[in-house]
């Protein structure tokens, strides 16, 4: 187990918890837990602290594989980090047309090399995607990918203005 996601998955399975149950205990959705376990993104520090408190382990163990004695028994491998814009809905509608990174005021990290050029974060608003996603959660959008059946997509209705 050499990634944060793999360590989190191991801890959760040892306690025989579902993703939904762990999410409820620390105040996030099951989708957030899934994304962390799949190493698609990392929890914020406040959630790392909640996870470490719940599983009675250190934040350092979760992030770096270092136990409380300071022994590095499974250091997390270095991953490529790239910062991509956090866009609102209007900016997202224009992002691929103009691909102007300057339209964003805030940039957040993504980890790994498996993303295209047209990637951005969006903060969800409203409750139309509950219970899978909640208002205020961040979603990473890679507009270079074609959606598969059952994927969530963010789209405009035909004739709808941005």
Structural class: alpha+beta
Poorly predicted regions are 71-78
Q: Characterize the main sheet.
A: 4 strands, mixed
Shape: globular
Mean pLDDT: 78
- Proportion in β-strands: 5-15%
- Tell me the series of helices and strands, N- to C-terminal: HHHHHEHEEE
Instruction: Count the E strands.
Output: 4
Q: Give the strand order, joined by hyphens, for the main sheet.
A: 2-1-3-4
Helix content: 25-40%
Give me the number of helical elements.
Answer: 6
Report, as a whole number of angstroms, the end-to-end distance: 44 Å
Radius of gyration: 17 Å
Task: Walk me through this protein's architecture.
The chain has 162 residues and is of the alpha+beta class. Helices cover 33% and strands 14% of the residues. The chain is built from six helices and four strands. Strands 2-1-3-4 form a four-stranded mixed sheet. Helix 2 packs across helix 3 (30-37). The longest helix is centred in the first third of the chain and has 11 residues, at 4-14.
